[in-house]
Design a protein that fits this description.
Elements lengths: L2 H13 L14 H7 L3 E10 L3 H7 L9 H4 L3 H4 L4 E6 L2 E2 L14 E2 L2 H8 L4 E3 L9 H14 L3 E3 L5 H5 L2 E5 L2 E9 L11 H6 L9 H10 L4 E7 L10 H13 L3 E3 L9 E7 L5 E7 L4 E3 L9 E11 L5 E16 L2 E6 L13 H17 L10
Length: 383
């Protein structure tokens, strides 16, 4: 990221530290941190990796196998452009209970979708969402097995009580990052599952003890904590009071970054402050919803999303803060025979080959919609 952007974002950090005395907080950006020998991790995060029936049909090959690479082709390099990339897998994976692959309303994808996601540069998948029980307990277990077999780090869906109890901590660039993943619902599918699946299969927001969960991560060595809540109301471009309340509680409990999903549209990105149990002010970055990354949804706002780009920067006191925040604005280019996610900023002046005039105008409009929603001090990145 250019120095002018870094300085702009330093001002953004100072402007958005709600409820905290700015004189008490010294912010070290990634560039300054590097000069001081402080550690940092460059993170990219995206929202919902959907698998609607049209995506499934496009992926099907003449020999009966499935290949999703073409759908990710024009954005894969942007996903991979980080030390660590995070996404929400909003589908179960692998056939279960005698049923075939499917799109909405009960999502189930072939395992080959994971190969594409891995090849595109994603490292971590959050699995706590309202579709993770679409194939009941068997589907959940199949999905977690497949996600591990393809080499992803993950959180939010559990095959046993011991797995639910185990803290998820990942070492990236010598920085230990703890992950918390929760969902507000599973579309009532829990009522069709066995008691043990309901007990430990999914991490639910309403049952969570954030303070206890963060403490467990810290005891396991986590130096910074990222929470991934699947929350809010679908298709609303502003967070509701419940999401705002949970965001405050997460930050107060010791979470440093909150990456929300579920609304299928992008919502604002804010620095949120809250008092911890000792009365100290904590500040964390909250992206209330990252929107769709790829889907067959074409209504206004659902056809766009963002890649959130930030750096977890060690501060002089040993804590970590998310700094140098930027976004790659995304447009899901949907036509008769293909769906592809692209950067609307990269192609704003020159559309990709084969894009119709109507799609080009909609792509540019979606970028303007995102620009008007997000704080104008958050820069758009080309890719």
């Amino acid at each position: 990221m250019k120095l002018v952007q870094k300085l702009t974002l330093l001002l953004l950090v100072a402007a958005l530290l709600f409820g905290a005395a700015q004189a008490e907080i010294t912010v070290t950006t990634a560039e300054i941190g590097a000069s001081l020998g402080l550690r940092s991790v460059h993170i990219r995060a995206v929202g919902d990796l959907m698998q609607h029936k049209k995506q499934l049909d496009i992926a099907k090959q003449s020999n009966g196998t499935y290949d999703y690479h073409e759908q990710y082709k024009l954005i894969a390099s942007s996903l991979a452009d980080a030390d660590y990339t995070i996404a929400n897998l909003e589908t179960t994976v692998g056939k279960a209970n005698g049923k075939g692959y499917s799109g909405y309303p009960r999502f189930n994808a072939p395992e080959s979708i994971l190969q594409t996601i891995k090849d595109a540069g994603v490292d971590f998948l959050t699995l706590a969402n309202n579709h993770m029980l679409d194939r009941l307990g068997t589907g959940l277990v199949n999905t977690v097995n497949a996600v591990e077999n393809y080499g992803f780090d993950h959180a939010g869906a559990n095959r046993s009580q011991s797995e639910k109890n185990a803290p998820v901590v990942v070492d990236v660039n010598g920085v230990k990052i703890g992950f918390l993943s929760y969902t507000q619902s599973t579309n009532g599918m829990e009522d069709k599952c066995s008691e043990k699946v309901v007990k430990y299969g999914i991490n639910y927001l309403k049952k969570a003890d954030f303070v206890k969960d963060v403490a467990k991560l810290k005891a396991a060595g986590a130096e910074v904590v990222i929470a991934l809540p699947h929350w809010g109301s679908e298709y609303k471009r502003q967070p509701g009071s419940t999401a705002k309340k949970y965001a405050k509680k997460l930050i107060a409990a010791g979470v440093d970054v909150v990456l929300g999903s579920h609304p299928h549209v992008v919502q604002p990105i804010k620095y949120v402050s809250a008092k911890d149990k000792d009365g100290n002010t904590r500040v964390g970055l909250v992206a209330y919803s990252l929107g769709n990354f790829i889907s067959n949804q074409t209504d206004q706002y659902t056809d766009s999303g963002i890649i959130l780009d930030f750096t977890l920067q060690e501060q002089k006191d040993g804590s970590f803060l998310a700094v140098d925040v930027g976004v790659v604005p995304l447009y899901c280019w949907n036509r008769d025979t293909m769906i592809q996610t692209i950067s609307s900023a990269k192609y704003y002046m020159n559309p990709p080959q084969g894009m119709s005039k109507a799609a080009y105008e909609r792509m540019k409009e979606s970028g303007r919609e995102l620009r008007s929603l997000l704080d104008d001090r958050i820069p758009f990145l080309l890719e």
